[in-house]
Design goal:
- The protein is of the alpha/beta class.
- It has a single domain, classed as Alpha-Beta Barrel (TIM Barrel), CATH 3.20.20.30.
- Helix content is 44%, strand content 14%.
- The chain is built from 13 helices and 11 strands.
- It is an enzyme of class 1 (oxidoreductase).
C-alpha cells in the first residue's frame, strides 16, 4: 500500500510555521512528513533556513502519529556523522520511534559554509559511504572507534538510543548512489520517476521502502499557481549537476534569470486540477515508488492540505 507524505520545506517557512503545517498535515491524514535540512534557501525569495533538528524536536512533541524523516541530511561536511547519529537517536526517542533518517551527498550551497571547501562528486560519495557506516554503527551500539580516509571516532557512544533498528534511507540521483543505498541503507529516496534507480537498488540487494518527492503547486487558478511556482521554485529546473555546485543564492538567481513560469510548470504541476496532480503522482507509483512525499510550493499550505484531504487522498488510498 502506498504511504503518503508531506514535505516540510524549511527553505520556504520559518520554524513555528513548519510545526503548524505539520500539525495540519497529521490531522489531514498524511502518513509521514519529511523536512529538508538546509543552511541556506536556494533563492532569496524563499527566505528561510531554520535548523531542521530543532524543528524536528518540536514536531515530535506537537504530533502523536505521523512519521517524521529528514529528506535529506548531508553528513559529510557541515555535520560530523557522529552528531547526526546522536540527533537521529534523540528524535526517534522524542517521537516514540516515528523517525526515519534520510541521508544524501549534499550541495555546495549548504556544506561549504564551514570553510572546508567542496570536494568533487567521487570524494563526496566516498565520504557519504564512510558516514553511513559510522551512523549505522553508532545507532546499533556496536561501533565506538573508527579510522577512515575522511572521518574518525574516538570512544564514541550513544547513551540514548531507541529500541530496535532506526531506519536509514539514502538519496540517489543515479545508479551508483542507488546501489550504495542498497548496500548500506535501509531504503531509497529520489526526486525523479526513474525506474532504473529502483532496478539498480534491487540489483544490489535493496529491499527497503522507496521514497519519492513529487513537486506541485495548488492554487485557485493555473495562472496563479504558475506564478507562485516560478517565484519560489524556479531553482529546481537547473538540474542536479548545477544544484550541487552553486555556492549561494546569488548563483541560483543568475542561473535562473531567464527561466519562465512556463518552463517551471513543465516540472511542477500547477493549478486546482486534482486530475493533473494525480497524473504526475501516478508516474512515480508506476515506476515502483511506494512512499510518495508531496511538496506544495509556496505559502498556501493550509489550502493545499485541505485539497489533499478532500481530493488527492481519496484517489490515492488503497493503491
Amino acid at each position: 500500500m502506498i504511504k503518503l507524505g508531506y514535505k516540510l520545506m524549511s527553505e520556504e517557512h520559518g520554524p513555528k510555521e513548519l510545526v503548524r503545517n505539520l500539525v495540519r498535515a497529521e490531522q489531514a491524514g498524511f502518513d509521514l512528513a519529511a523536512i529538508s535540512d538546509h543552511f541556506s534557501p536556494w533563492i532569496e525569495e524563499q527566505g528561510h533556513a531554520p535548523l531542521a533538528w530543532s524543528v524536528l524536536g518540536a514536531c515530535a512533541q506537537a504530533t502523536s502519529r505521523i512519521g517524521l524523516m529528514t529528506a535529506v541530511t548531508c553528513p559529510i561536511m557541515r555535520y560530523h556523522p557522529a552528531i547526526i547519529a546522536q540527533g537521529a537517536a534523540t528524535v526517534a526517542l522524542l517521537s516514540d520511534n516515528r523517525f526515519t533518517l534520510g541521508l544524501g551527498a549534499g550541495e555546495r550551497l549548504n556544506e561549504h559554509v564551514t570553510g572546508e571547501g567542496w570536494p568533487g562528486v567521487g570524494e563526496r560519495h566516498e565520504r557519504l559511504s564512510e558516514a553511513i557506516d559510522i551512523i549505522q554503527g553508532l545507532l546499533a551500539g556496536d561501533l565506538t572507534n573508527y579510522r577512515g580516509a575522511y572521518f574518525s571516532l574516538d570512544q564514541a557512544r550513544l547513551f540514548d538510543r531507541p529500541p530496535g533498528k532506526l531506519p536509514v534511507v539514502v538519496a540517489a540521483g543515479g545508479p551508483e548512489a542507488a546501489r550504495l543505498a542498497a548496500r548500506k541503507g535501509d531504503g531509497l529516496v529520489v526526486t525523479e520517476p526513474k525506474p532504473e534507480l529502483i532496478e539498480a537498488f534491487r540489483s544490489a540487494g535493496g529491499e527497503g521502502p522507496r521514497y519519492a518527492e513529487v513537486s506541485m503547486c495548488w492554487a485557485p487558478t493555473e495562472e496563479e499557481a504558475r506564478k507562485t511556482a516560478h517565484h519560489y521554485f524556479r531553482w529546481s529546473v537547473t538540474g542536479w549537476p548545477v544544484q550541487a555546485e552553486l555556492p549561494n543564492t546569488r548563483g541560483f538567481e543568475a542561473a535562473t534569470k531567464h527561466v519562465t513560469p512556463e518552463v517551471v510548470a513543465q516540472q511542477v504541476t500547477c493549478g486546482p486540477s486534482a486530475e493533473m496532480h494525480l497524473k504526475s503522482i501516478t508516474k512515480f507509483i508506476e515506476a515502483g515508488y511506494d512512499h510518495i512525499i508531496l511538496t506544495q510550493v509556496g505559502p498556501q499550505q493550509a489550502e493545499f492540505i485541505a485539497f489533499f484531504e478532500r481530493e488527492l487522498a481519496p484517489a490515492l488510498r488503497g493503491r
